[in-house]
Specification:
Blueprint: H1 2-6, H2 8-28, H3 32-37
């Protein structure tokens, strides 16, 4: 088990290489033209940020 303490970084590199290759393989399956043709519409915003602060908290200027 002494080799594990010396060469742990090799195991980490092999795992990262495997993850990297799987990501590349999955990204090759994506067809951007097909996605853009069938892109779902975005839902409207439901938070109404423009209406949450209607009242004016600033003091009125005196002329």
């Amino acid at each position: 088990m002494e080799w594990l303490s010396h060469y742990w970084w090799v195991i980490v590199l092999v795992l990262l290489l495997g993850i990297f290759l799987n990501v590349i393989k999955d990204l090759k399956r994506i067809d951007p033209k097909k996605y853009m043709a069938n892109k779902p519409d975005l839902p409207p915003h439901r938070d109404f940020n423009d209406k949450w602060d209607d009242e004016d908290d600033w003091p009125k200027k005196k002329p």
